[in-house]
UniProtKB/TrEMBL annotation:
<dbReference type="InterPro" id="IPR030374">
    <property type="entry name" value="PABS"/>
</dbReference>
<comment type="subunit">
    <text>Homodimer or homotetramer.</text>
</comment>
<comment type="similarity">
    <text>Belongs to the spermidine/spermine synthase family.</text>
</comment>
<keyword id="KW-0812">Transmembrane</keyword>
<feature type="transmembrane region" description="Helical">
    <location>
        <begin position="24"/>
        <end position="52"/>
    </location>
</feature>
<comment type="pathway">
    <text>Amine and polyamine biosynthesis; spermidine biosynthesis; spermidine from putrescine: step 1/1.</text>
</comment>
<feature type="binding site">
    <location>
        <position position="333"/>
    </location>
    <ligand>
        <name>S-methyl-5'-thioadenosine</name>
    </ligand>
</feature>
<dbReference type="InterPro" id="IPR029063">
    <property type="entry name" value="SAM-dependent_MTases_sf"/>
</dbReference>
<feature type="transmembrane region" description="Helical">
    <location>
        <begin position="154"/>
        <end position="177"/>
    </location>
</feature>
<feature type="transmembrane region" description="Helical">
    <location>
        <begin position="119"/>
        <end position="142"/>
    </location>
</feature>
<keyword id="KW-0745">Spermidine biosynthesis</keyword>
<keyword id="KW-1133">Transmembrane helix</keyword>
<keyword id="KW-0472">Membrane</keyword>
<feature type="transmembrane region" description="Helical">
    <location>
        <begin position="183"/>
        <end position="204"/>
    </location>
</feature>
<feature type="transmembrane region" description="Helical">
    <location>
        <begin position="58"/>
        <end position="77"/>
    </location>
</feature>
<dbReference type="GO" id="GO:0004766">
    <property type="term" value="F:spermidine synthase activity"/>
</dbReference>
<dbReference type="Pfam" id="PF01564">
    <property type="entry name" value="Spermine_synth"/>
</dbReference>
Length: 533
């Protein structure tokens, strides 16, 4: 049975250091535990955004559930105030284990079950309860160490807590994530949390612990640290197994860049797949249908200077460079690791026709929005080969303000083409893109092509994708500063595998049949993209 800690009357607790030193050590523990707690929150938000998609929604879920749970934890901690030291030690051990293992379990649920939302909510609730229980117990402990008025104690505790949160919030993106990754970073944070909580109780308050309580805390902390250390040793094997469960057995390249996770599987013409942050971006089985429909209708007319936004895989550039009268192609890709992979990987460079070896092509690493905002150059054709607008990071690149920048960068007779998502399964998104292009000052002509072999939802959560109708087509919006003109092909267009005038006319009629009148444009301050049922 855990020994009761009776409050000492008339002064501070019996501690092995001076009261002022003890107070400093308690505040130092508050600082470390607050930093660890915020790392757990950020790690859940970051991993959930990658696994489920839509970072705004995931951040809202994690933070709201966690704050609510902190209130519950504070109420539950009232029952432990009589044995605050041992209660705090056990809570910190539990928090270290749950928070440290949260990333592993969340990723495992995605890899082997396919559904990660309930696990995300469960961890947010549990971690929030444990974090919420800390402050009432620490308030009791600091008053036992150094008697002071309640207002002063609260001010000291919250100052240490807020500064610790600042350090944890900065350490996660700038230190833990780039150096250790999400899984190892969470495990390391859990170990730091366990050491800080255990050391405070077992050293500063050891005289207030009975023999059983002391042995229990030592055992629990040793078990927690051993589990976290074991998981750290096995984390690479776990990642490989989870990656095989998600992507199959033919993973050739898997790397975490400064921007995203990049995975390349297969090597043959009919088996190469490129995933970015878990989302299938390129499949060699049907990419030619997509890229032919994206590029060639926009090339009807002047096309000497072409700007490709996104498209770091080089496949859109491959189609553009088939026109001998093209003089320059600029590819603006946010992640330079993607362009490097497209240039150096034998299978991917073979698929893109070794586009990066063409002297007419220039690759620029940077944000497409900032590139357009800064440029004063003019282009005959702008090709927007960007990720799905439902992904939060891409929303600004499908806003009316963005298309206003594109309009400014077009020659008077220039054209823009935008990948706008699958109109058959996500019509609201498709017509929101079209309305946003028009709001940017451009005339539009929407069209679609079918024949899609591989399907993927806006987010990579496989359970969500299974519930939704698999997309069967691609949707595009062709736009121009003046009248767009009839949809068709340039007289000098090369021979294509699947696309022709008849397919384009059919795609134009098919898009008009599902038009949604009254769609409102998306703007930077009022984004209108969402995941459709």
């Amino acid at each position: 049975m855990i020994d009761q800690q009776m409050p000492l009357r008339g002064g501070a607790a019996r501690i092995p250091v001076r009261p002022r030193t003890g107070r400093f050590l308690v505040l130092a523990a508050v600082f470390v535990c607050a930093a660890c707690g915020l790392v757990y929150e950020l790690e859940l938000v970051a991993l959930a955004s990658y696994l489920i998609g839509d970072s705004v929604t995931q951040a809202s879920v994690v933070l709201s559930v966690m704050v609510f749970a902190m209130g519950i934890g504070s109420l539950l901690a009232k029952r432990l105030r009589g044995r605050a030291a041992v209660g705090f030690g056990l809570i910190e051990a539990a928090l270290a284990l749950v928070g440290g293992m949260s990333a592993l379990v969340l990723y495992a649920s995605f890899a082997w079950i396919g559904e990660s939302r309930p696990v995300l909510v469960g961890f947010s609730l549990t971690i929030g309860i444990l974090i919420g229980a800390e402050i009432p117990l620490l308030m009791t402990l600091i008053q036992r160490v150094d008697r002071q008025d309640a207002g002063g104690a609260v001010a000291d505790l919250f100052a240490a807590d807020y500064v610790g949160a600042l350090v944890g919030g900065l350490a996660f993106p700038f230190l833990l994530l780039p150096m250790m990754g999400q899984l190892t970073g969470a495990l390391f944070t859990g170990a730091v949390n366990a050491v800080a909580g255990g050391a405070l109780v077992l050293w500063v308050f050891r005289r207030d612990l009975g023999r059983r309580s002391r042995r229990l805390l030592i055992l629990v902390n040793c078990v927690v640290i051993a589990l976290l250390a074991t998981a750290s040793v096995l984390v690479d094997d776990f990642e490989r197994a989870a990656r095989r469960a998600v992507y199959g057995d033919e993973v050739r390249v898997a790397m975490q860049t400064e921007v995203q996770e990049v995975v390349l599987t297969g090597s043959g013409r009919d088996g190469l797949d490129l995933y970015l942050d878990g989302r299938l971006r390129v499949s060699s089985r049907d990419e030619h249908r997509y890229h032919e429909a994206l590029v060639h209708p926009a090339m009807k007319g002047a096309h000497r200077r072409v700007l490709i936004l996104g498209g770091g895989d080089g496949l859109a550039a491959r189609e553009v460079l088939r026109y001998p009268d093209v003089t320059s192609v600029e590819v603006v890709e946010l992640d330079p690791a993607v362009t490097r992979l497209a240039r150096t990987d034998p299978a991917l460079s073979r698929l893109n026709g070794h586009a990066y070896d063409d002297p007419r092509l220039t690759a620029v690493a940077g944000d497409a929005f900032l590139r357009l905002r800064a440029t004063r150059e003019r282009f005959d054709v702008v090709i927007s080969d960007l990720p799905d607008p439902g992904i939060t990071a891409s929303t600004k690149l499908y806003a009316a303000e963005f298309y206003g920048l594109v309009a400014r960068a077009l020659e008077p007779g220039g054209r823009l083409v935008v990948h706008a998502g699958p109109p058959s399964s996500r019509p609201a998104t498709f017509w929101t893109v079209e309305a946003s292009v028009r709001a940017g000052g451009l005339a539009t002509r929407p069209y679609r092509v079918d024949g899609r072999v591989t399907g993927f939802a806006a987010g990579p959560d496989r359970a969500a994708a299974g519930r939704a109708e698999a997309p069967q087509d691609w949707g595009f919006v062709l736009a121009a500063r003046q009248e767009v003109g009839p949809l068709g092909m340039d007289p000098g267009a090369p021979a294509l595998r699947t696309l022709g005038e008849r397919e384009l006319r059919a795609g134009l009629r098919a898009a008009e049949r599902i038009r949604q009148p009254g769609a409102l444009p998306s703007t930077l301050v009022h984004p209108r993209y969402w995941e459709e049922p």
